[in-house]
Amino acid sequence: MDFTCSAQEAVYCDLCETALVQMHCDTCLINLCTACVGGHMMIGEPTGHQFVRFQSRRPGQHPNKCLISTHYGKRCDLFCKQCQTQVCSSCIASGSHSDHKIMEIQQIIEFRKKKAANDKRLINSLILPSYVTMAQQLQNELDHIEKKHEEVVREIEKHGELKHLDINKTVNILKAEADAIRNNQVQTLQQEITAIDGKISSIEEVIENTQNVLDSQSLIMVSSYVSRCQEFKMLPQTVNVKMPQFKDRVIPQTEQNSMFGSLSVDDLQTEVVYTEIPAALYSSPFKELMENPEIVNTIQSCNSACLYSVVCRGKDMVFTTCDDCTIENIKLTEKGDSKMQRSRTELENPPWDITLDKDGHLVYTDEETINLLKNDKIQVLLTLDNWIPLNLCNTLYGDLLVIMDSCDQKQTRVVRYSGTEEKQSIQFDEKGQPFFNSYNGYKYIAENRNLDICVVDCQAGAVVVLDQAGKLRFRYTGQMSTPKNRLFCPLGLTTDSQCQILISDISNDCIHVIDQDGQFLRYIDCGLKCPWGLCTDMDDNLYVAEKGGTLRKIKYLSN
Q: Fewer Cβ within 10 Å of end Cβ, the chain: N or C?
């Protein structure tokens, strides 16, 4: 059936079921008459509904009707959390969802839309840019490989030419040596030939002389004959000529390669390294704000002074700081009792703020340094020049965010550190105006699950929320109506798995809960007195450190 209705069909309002339909809620997939639009807007957040004329509704949308044929197309106002499906009143009456968690479908729609918006923002701000950047890097690497390959080939050819020159040089040396040997041998033989020719001439002269004596009848000639054979007693027998021979050296191929050179391939890698996104960014289950938050545990600290900061490790370990030189360690038992262990730092200045690094070790600030407390030993991580570290927090990726004032109290900035390396500094907006009041007041900091940076600027009476890149998203300055009708005085700050931001308001003895876009959700004001430091544990329990030294554990979300 086409999504538009024919002239013969009469479509009635899903709420009153008597008036003809005029409008359609795209958010809830409900058809409404004009009179029922106002009442429907009051369900959930008024700004969360998108209305269009019935004839202009988008095609392909599934009507908010029960899919079970025997329920006669009843409207589904409820949602079964266990079955993950929409249900109508007949589904509930049938007993098929007994003992299941049933919720209003409007809550699920709002949560899923917020989840979709958060996912869209995560994809657009982090996931897609990472892949686009990697695609460009891969293309750049391809171009670099081709260029580098040509350079390597040219180097090999050039080295080969040099080796050829070296070989030719060796050949010429050997040829010159062979020529020198030949010339020497030729000269020696020529000298011997000359000597032999002289001897032969002398011998022929002797032969002629002896023949003359034999033929002569002269007594004088014959009696004066003297033998000259003594001169020729050394007879030449053989000619010993040793010719040089070239002895080539057969070099194995592997030795030739090593003698010529080689390509370094020990550290050669061609791979794309992936970093897993923290699951907290995308997989947090839906939890509702409880109508009546409850204090489940009250712990009296050993310190009766202000508890400035509190941080949780796991489900049973809490650390607090106050105005002395101690970090208090509170071990919680399953029964809710507490065993307190105190550890003292060997510092002249008291610790101001604390957080946990990615390995669960305490990191704290004092007036001059940022320090790591590991195995009861203190290691100075950073010493800042011209800046005073105030508050800090650990991020989902294991970085440290530190808010700090300049020593002259004229500037305030947020710095992101990876280890001890400064990766980012946030101080001014796009117009060059400072984000934070430079007065030396309280400034707490936390990272939200959507990677926003949240900063309490107490002196300005505001919570400043920036995105991961350091651009302003919004400022929260409190509500017109507060539990005690006093000015908003924010101090402590934390976030939870729902990307909600919790802010302690010390002047109104309450906690403000706002969503990730700055919309006020509710107050938590269950008998708190001067709430200061805040943190949430892995189960979304809220810990509130009060000025008088009391620590309260509050359950404010239902699963």
A: N
The 10s digit of each residue's pLDDT in 458-512 is: 888 999 999 988 999 999 999 988 888 899 999 999 999 888 999 999 999 999 9
Alpha carbon distance 223, 243 (integer Å): 51
The strand pair at 309-313 and 288-300 is best described as: unpaired
* pLDDT tens for each residue of 412-447: 999 999 988 999 999 999 999 999 987 767 889 999
CB 442 within 8 A of CB 531: no
Query: Can you point out the beta strands (E) in 193-271?
Result: none
Give the DSSP per-residue string, 284-353: PPP-EEEEEEEEEEEEE-S--S---EEEEETTTEEEEE-SSSEEEEEEEPTTS-EEEEEEE---SSPP--
**Tens of pLDDT, residues 8-62:** 467 888 888 888 888 888 777 788 898 998 888 876 655 567 888 888 777 655 5
Q: Choose among 34, 37, 36, 33: nearest CA to 49.
A: 37
Give SS3 for 447: strand
> Cα(37)–Cα(9) distance, rounded to whole angstroms?
22
Give the C-alpha distances (Å, rounded to integers) separating 336 from 45, 304, 339, 553.
37, 21, 10, 10
Do the beta carbons of residue 476 and residue 463 sit within 8 Å?
yes
Which token pair is 333? 């038992």
Tell me the pLDDT tens digit for each residue of 358-370: 888 999 998 889 9
Is the per-residue pLDDT at 137 higher than 60? yes
CB 291: neighbour CB atoms within 10 A?
Answer: 7
- In DSSP terms, which residues pair with 446 in a beta bridge? 454
pTM of structure:
0.64
Residues recorded for the chain? 559
Is 21:12 a contact under the CB 8 Å cutoff?
yes
- Whole-angstrom CA distances from 109 to 43, 46, 48, 223 are 12, 13, 10, 154
**CB neighbour list of residue 161: distance below 8 Å, 6 or more residues apart:** none
CA dist 525 to 291, 420, 486, Å? 12, 40, 14
Show the tokens assigned to 153: 């080939």
